[in-house]
Amino acid sequence: MEAVDIRHAEPSDYQPIISVINDWWGGRNMSDMLPKLFFNHFRETSFVAESSGKIVGFLIGFLSQTFQDEAYIHFAGVHPDYRKMGLGRALYERFFDVARNLGRTVVRCVTSPVNKGSIAFHLRIGFSIERSETIVEGICVAKNYDGHGGDRVLFSKTLNA
Amino acid sequence: MEAVDIRHAEPSDYQPIISVINDWWGGRNMSDMLPKLFFNHFRETSFVAESSGKIVGFLIGFLSQTFQDEAYIHFAGVHPDYRKMGLGRALYERFFDVARNLGRTVVRCVTSPVNKGSIAFHLRIGFSIERSETIVEGICVAKNYDGHGGDRVLFSKTLNA
User: Fold this and answer.
1) Residue A153 in contact with residue A110, Cβ under 8 Å?
2) Closest to B96 (Cα-Cα) out of B108, B85, B86, B87
3) Across the A/B interface, how many CB contacts are shorter than 8 Å?
4) Is the pTM here over 0.90, yes or no?
5) What is the block-wise mean pLDDT of chain A (161 residues), using blocks of 10 residues?
6) Mutation to test the A interface, candidates B37, B73, B95, B98, most A Cβ within 10 Å
7) Cα angle value A132/B41/B121 (rounded, 5°)
8) Do residues A72 and B41 lie in contact, with contact meaning Cβ atoms separated by under 8 Å?
9) Contact: B31, A148; criterion CB under 8 Å
């Protein structure tokens, strides 16, 4: 395959990403969850992966403004044709490096319980699932966490110095 | 009317707010645009207005991490029965005070062109509309700005020292 470059996100990346995001998520309606503000105001902790000028992956993250030791990944996706090549891991590691350099020691994110691929990915790269009362198919799930009845799996990972 | 108190937002405010938000916006589906992360990680710049223990308004904002002089208001709403009493203005002024104290001099936000009440409110409290090529009913509109074809009116306001 062609080389893939990872760089900081820019506002001009928004339209190309928002126009493919529902497809990358297998038809789920994801685009309302990704307003443009993240591409304007959180560029230092957001990244785009490009191959031959085409966006093939992205990660949108920020530094918690309430918890000075925490960083958060809001959204990350990889083009279906570019999966299983380590690109998701590379995007997360870029984020971990930046967060660590800015003094953050914990990274958090959430995913939907239906997204088994995402759950497996986060476990593989070292995230733990937060305990909760409700267990679905062996996995702790925070019920009714996001939106109207949106259950979520809550992940956290400690960054090593 | 009963007294209204304004305090910082907390994670426990999320469910009460997300369960009324579509109603407060006249039935528009807004809830996907307000993930819980804002109630966890941006509490210092987010506020809830309460009357007799009931939430009657809220404002969700953050400090730009890309532009050190800017702050951004992502979402703000007031219960329909508590409008036209200055509560929206009071929430924005709380945000302006916090942003100013944290060294920010510009506040930005966006709204949908269909939301004439929101446009009038922002003009009334001193926001300006950013110029753009497209003008709809006399108002500059950024075409295809957010999501799939979501036009937006872009506002900015300078905070006086």
Assistant:
1) yes
2) B108
3) 78
4) yes
5) 90 95 90 92 98 97 98 97 96 98 98 93 96 92 87 96 74
6) B37
7) 125
8) yes
9) yes
CA distance linking residue B33 with residue A32, whole number of Å: 6
Q: Please check whether residue A78 is in contact with residue A123, taking contact to mean a CB–CB distance below 8 angstroms.
A: no
Helix, strand, coil content of chain B in percent (nearest 5) = 30, 35, 35
Q: For chain A, what percentages of helix, strand and coil (3-state, to nearest 5) are there?
A: 30, 35, 35
Asked if A36 contacts B146 with a C-beta cutoff of 8 angstroms, the reply is yes
**Alpha-carbon torsion A138, A141, A143, A147, what sign?**
negative
pLDDT tens digits for chain B (161 residues)? 578 999 999 999 999 999 999 999 999 888 888 999 999 999 999 999 999 999 999 999 999 999 999 999 999 999 999 999 999 999 999 999 999 999 999 999 999 999 999 999 999 999 999 999 899 989 999 999 997 778 999 999 999 87
Please name the residues between 21 and 40 in chain B that touch chain A, using a CB distance below 8 Å: 29, 31-37, 40
B5, B43 contact by CB (below 8 A) = no
Are the CB atoms for B94 and B6 separated by under 8 Å? yes
The amino acid sitting at A70 is E
Q: Which two tokens stand for residue A56?
A: 């093939």
Q: Does A44 touch chain B (CB under 8 A)?
A: yes
Across the interface, which of B29, B45, B146 has its CB nearest the CB of A65?
B45
